[in-house]
Amino acid sequence: YQYIDVQTNPNWLCFTALEDNSSITFDMNVGTSDDYFYTLDTVHAYNWDGSTINLDEGESVYVFGAIEPTANTRLGQFRMTGTISASGDITSLFNKVGGEYNGYIYSYTFNQLFMDCISLVKAPNIDCVTTSNIPDWGQQYAIHIFDKMFYNTGLTEIPRLPHITQSIDNQLYMFDNMFGNCQSLTDVDLSYIDYTYWLACESDGIFNGCQNITHIELPSLRQVTMAYQFKRTFKGTTGLESVDLSHLEYAPSPSYCMEE
After folding, report:
1. Fewer Cβ close by (within 10 Å): the C or N end of the chain?
2. pTM for this prediction
3. Counting Cβ atoms within 10 Å, is residue 80 exposed (0-12), middle (13-18) or buried (19+)?
4. How far is residue 97 CA from its own chain's centroid?
5. Count of CB atoms within 10 A of residue 2's CB?
6. At 252, is the pLDDT very low, low, confident or very high (cuts 50, 70, 90)?
7. DSSP labels for the chain?
């Protein structure tokens, strides 16, 4: 093991078991065991090759790294068993000393990161991703950053989305299918969203296949600038009973939001 020099409150990515015989594994697509670390006590850190870490109820493991994201390259994919609650900043995978991450995050970085983790019932912080992390070099560097990030997980609520204030073109399709097929979602609160960013989707909606969502709360004091910002946003939410668009200046029709 090694001691890690960290900030006072590093807010590392953390996984806590909610039942015995839980586990996490990481299939890394970028980097090696020299680039990832884990600790069970926040004092002694070990290099991690992604192999299975077993946890009983109440036990936690902290994961962090020193990866430099690369355009159009997925980090990898977590696997889980049991019941797992996540916390801490997702950007600690790039910033082992903790605190604010000041580097760039590119297209597909978090693509499929927790896909098929049915055991995951609570997501880590992703609103630690900020405008300064998104390179303003054209749309291709921002699309699909969060594509399928939590697809087919056991989340009972969605995490707070990042507040990205880049140009609209640079945010297009960032959230495609992000929470697709999450059948434990029933009520979604997006009331905090600032409509400087889009929830438009290229092919599949952000909640595509979430058949048990019955209500989506949108902000009442903000206005969209273009109806296209909602294209396909609610596609596949077949159980949706209510979503109020009437207060929006350029409100799209419900059918436009659910377009196939």
Report:
1. C
2. 0.89
3. buried
4. 21
5. 9
6. low
7. -EE----SS---EEEEESSTTEEEEEEESSS-TTTEEEESSSSEEEE--S--EEE-TT-EEEEEE-----TT---EEEEEES-EEEESBGGGGT-TT-S---S---TTTTTTTTTT-TTEEE--B-TT--GGGS--S-GGGTTTTTTTTTTT---SSPPPPP---S-GGGGTTTTTTTTTT-TT--EEE-TT--TTS----SSS-TTTT-TT--EEE--SS---S-GGGGTTTTTT-TT--B---TT-TTPPPHHHHT--
Q: Which residues does residue 192 pair with via DSSP β-bridges, in sequence order?
A: none
Tokens of 133: 């992390």
43-52, 76-85, 99-108: least confident range = 99-108
C-alpha closest to that of 79 among 110, 114, 35, 33: 114
Residues in the chain, total: 260
Q: Using the predicted structure, report yes or no on whether residue 240 has a pLDDT greater than 90.
A: no
Each residue of 168-189: pLDDT tens digit? 454 567 788 899 999 999 999 8
Q: With contact defined as beta carbons under 8 Å apart, do 84 and 24 qualify?
A: yes
Amino acid occupying residue 47: N
The pLDDT of residue 34 is above 80: yes
Token couple for 209: 């296949």
Q: Give the span between the Cα atoms of 193 and 163, in whole angstroms.
A: 8
Report the distance separating Cα 91 and Cα 105, nearest Å: 9
Q: Which residues of 4-28 are buried (b: 16+ CB within 10 A; e: fewer)?
A: bebeeebbbbbbbbeeeebbbebeb
Residue 181: its pLDDT value, please?
94
Of residues 163 and 212, more confidence is placed in 212
Two tokens, residue 41: 């006590």
